[in-house]
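Sample log: 6,7-dimethyl-8-ribityllumazine synthase.
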Amino acid sequence: MAGHETHYILPRPHFDKPVKMLIVVAPYYKDIADNMVAGAKAEIEACGGSWDLVEVPGALEVPTAIGIAERMSNFDGYVALGCVIRGETTHYDTVCNDSSRALQMLGLQGLCIGNGILTVENRKQAEVRADPSDQNKGGGAAAAALHLIALGRKWGGQRKGVGFVPDAEEYKLAGELKDNPTA
């Protein structure tokens, strides 16, 4: 079982200014979600960060909530939490694939997201993965987002590729040109 293997875990990143995170959770399986949230909160706080928490109806709504928050708020990163347990229909595949794909697309747009939406075969697997004293996947998702935030801050001064936005002082209006005596 993969849960008993030893994996390398990156050291916690350090930040010179506070980190503000949004934890978005689908508490369909409330006890599992609560454990994952506890793990995520602890990891964020261990890095000196702060967090807000919002609940959404299901895993498919998690990426949408993150997209709304990115457009309308000021978070440095996001932790996506939920649990999808295989049932008797193909709905499991749809929810797993579409929620993951949507989070990946948001990440490729530059959002710092830790994906902690569990996709498991049964409740026991979910319980082990959600438990902060066992696999702690909520904490792991928060750690992933924190590492991405650290990378973003490290490379924040570099400008390349799509999405280049010059600093405010690089914007010049016609009336502000140096050779204009009214500037």
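Observation: The two ends are 69 Å apart (CA to CA).
Observation: The chain has one domain: 19-153.
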